[in-house]
Every structure is written in structure tokens, then in C-alpha cells.
Amino acid sequence: MLYVEGIAKKFGSTQALIDATFKVNKGEIVGFVGRNGSGKTTTMRCLIGLLGVDKGNIRLDGRIKSHLDNSRIGYMPEERGLYAKIKVKDQLKYFGELQGLSARDALRSTNELLARFEVPHFADRVLSTLSLGNQQRIQFIATLVHKPSLLILDEPFNGLDPVGMAQLTQILREFTLSGAGVLLSSHQLDLVSDLCDRIVVIESGSVIAEDTLENLQKRGSIKYRITGSRMPKDLAQRFPYVVVYENADSIIATFQQSNFASEKDRLLKIILERGSLDTFTEIKPSLSEVYSELISYG
Question: 42 and 51 in contact (C-beta within 8 Å)?
């Protein structure tokens, strides 16, 4: 669906993007992860045409994206872009018409989405009278009102309570079932981990990783919890930077990919010869741990 092909963007002497390349397939949610200033927002603004690129291409369904394709995209900025003093229904209808819907279709879509989010009673409320979380709901509805086939979302969960987060998550999953795609940027890595089919990691303007979480978890160090009722007491000295004791009967062993097989076998041999082995369980790193390791080592 969306293919970002080696895009670059410079602001004065600052190189904001450097040959950034990644894709969003039909029917998937892609998490876009990076620290502040890494290039996420610049990338998203390039995707929707707010910024031009100095180099590279942005393709939709195999062809170079043009401004005519913008109506196919729903963009939700981190900073709300709604009108504080206008009624909710009026501005949602306006945004729908702005993206090419007829007045009737824009009103129908507005009413459907307000009902879907269980907030039809907000229709005649002025936006500024709503809580920040409910304003975030309306901002998301404004992103969907013209029925786009691609969503680009910058911190969409900000300000939402657990109910709102569950609603948004469910709607995103329904959205992709129709074949649409989602690019979602968030610092809430637990949510990204649970929701997204693949992860794109950007650092200093370059995409340094793009894969499923499962595959990313296999790229870094390998961690195991090892327990035994007679655990040798000198393992941390024998295996510096590998073994850390949790307690007298449990250790955490962190292996590098390059030496995993040999170090694992050597460690287990010592434990079996001098102590006892009850369990040997892999600990899969969280997305936060994977991300930290990726940006540390590039």
C-alpha cells in the first residue's frame, strides 16, 4: 500500500531524514517508534504532503503519491487541529466535505462515528466544553470521517482513558480488516507491542530496523532465567557480563548472539556438574528493551 523509498529532508544545516525506507502493507498496523527529534513527525508530514522531500519517493499502491491522493489518507497530528469554539457535528461534517464527501455523506459519516464511539450526545456541544480525552476522541473521528484507506496517527492515545483506548484499538483493528493500513507513532511502547503487526524504528533520521516484534526480539541479546536448588555461588565471577543472581536459587543469563551456543553449553555444564538445574526459561525482551538496544548499537 505505502512504500517510503529512501526519502531525505534537510532544514538548513540539520539533516532531519536520511534515506528513510519502510512500508505499510494493506491490512496491517505498523508501529513507528523513535525518540523525540528522531524524524517521526517530519516523516509523517512528508507522507501527507505538508513537507516536500529533498530525495526519494513516496508510493501509494505502486505509483508515486500526488496531492490528489491526500483524500485517501487520514492524518491525526499529536497537537489537536480542531476548532475549539465550533460545535462538534458542524466541524466533523466540514472536515468530511473538505476531503471530498457530499454534505449528506459527511453528515451520515459523522453521525455513524459519533455513535460508534458512544458519544452521539456530543454532536451539538462546543469542542472546548469537552474533556481532553473526549476532544481526543473527536480528533480521531475527524481523521476517519472521510473514510480513508490509510491512517497516519501521531500519538493517538494521548489523553484517553482505558475505555477510550480500548475503543480506538478495536476500531483500528476493524479498519485493517477492510484492507486499510495504519502507521502509528506512539511513545507508549506496550500499546505498540500489543497492537502492531510490525515495528519501524527510526533514529537520527534513519530507519534502523523494520520487522515484526518477534523477529526484532531475536536480533539482540538472548536472555534466560535459570533456577536450581543448589546453584553454584561463583557463576557471576566465571561469567562476567553474562550472569546476574536474582537470589540463591535463580540467575539471569544474558548471552550475545555470537557466543550463545558455546557460552550456554559451558554455563549449563558447570551448573549440572556442581549444582542442580530445575528450569531453563527464555525471557523474551519487551519492545522497550528491544528499542533501547537498537538505538544503543544502531
Answer: yes
Instruction: For 14-36, write each residue's pLDDT tens digit.
Output: 999 999 999 999 999 999 999 98
Those residues with Cβ within 8 angstroms of residue 66's Cβ, 6 or more apart along the chain or in another chain: none
Domains of the chain: 2-211 (3.40.50.300), 218-297 (3.30.70)
The partner residues of 126 in beta bridges, in order of sequence, read 87
The whole-chain average pLDDT of the chain stands at: 91
Residue showing cell 507491542: 193
DSSP 14: E
C-alpha angle with apex 84: 83 to 89, nearest 5 degrees? 65
Question: Beta-carbon neighbour count of residue 245 at 10 Å?
Answer: 13
**pLDDT tens readout for residues 215-230:** 888 887 889 999 998 8
The answer to whether the CB of 9 falls within 8 A of the CB of 42 is: yes
Vertex 38: Cα angle to 36 and 42 (nearest 5): 100
Grid cell of 84 as nine digits: 475549539
Q: How many CA atoms lie less than 13 Å away from 251 in the CB half-sphere?
A: 29
Strand partners, 4: 22, 58
